[in-house]
Amino acid sequence: MQIQNLALPLDRRLPIPHPSKQEGQSIIEIAFTLPLLLMIVLALFEMGVVFGSYISLANATREGAIFASMHPELTNPANDNNTYGSGTRTLWQEYFKRVNDEIVVLVSEPLREGQLVDEGTLTVNRPAVGPAPGPNCPGTNPLNPGCPITVTVSFRLHTFVSDASLPVVGRLGLPNYYQLTYSVGMPIR
After folding, report:
1. Number of Cβ atoms within 10 Å of the Cβ of 131
2. pLDDT tens track for 86-124
3. What would the DSSP string read from start to end of 151-185?
4. Strand 178-187 versus strand 104-106 pairing type
C-alpha cells in the first residue's frame, strides 16, 4: 500500500486566520463600557434601597401618628413617665417602640436593638398638635377630639456604597448619607 501525499497544493489551501484589529477593539470597548454599566447598576441599587427605606419610614410614621392620635398626652413631656398598659413600659417608650418596630432595615426584617450602626440614626420627634380653634378642632383645647396631631420621624440612612468613591469622578453626585424625613397628621380620636 502506498501512502499518498494529502497536502493540498498552495493555491487550494484554506486561508489561515490572522489576528485582526477587531478583536482588540472589542476588548477596549468592554473596558470602557463595563465600569459605566457597573456604576449605573450600583446607583440603581442604591436608589432602590433609599426608596424602600422611605416607604418603611412612611409606614413607621403612620403607626406613630395612629398611636399619638389615641394618646394626645404624648405632646406634653410631663406625661412621659405615665405607665402604659400592664405597666412595664411608659407611654413614651411604647410610642417609640411602635415606631421603631415598623422600621424595616433589610427585606422583611424589623429593626432590632443594636442594629443601627450610628447612634442617632432614627429620630422620633414628639407629636405636635395644631392650633386651636380651627374648622375641625372644637373648643379652645388643642387636645380635643378632631384637632390635628402631627408626628415627624427622621432616619439617617447609610447604604453599602455610602463610603465608596471612584478615583477620578468621586461619588457621581450621590450623597454620603440620606436624611429621610416623613410627617403625618391625623385627627385626635
Report:
1. 9
2. 778 899 889 988 888 887 655 455 555 545 444 557 888
3. EEEEEEE--TTTT--BTTTBTTT--SSEEEEEEEE
4. unpaired
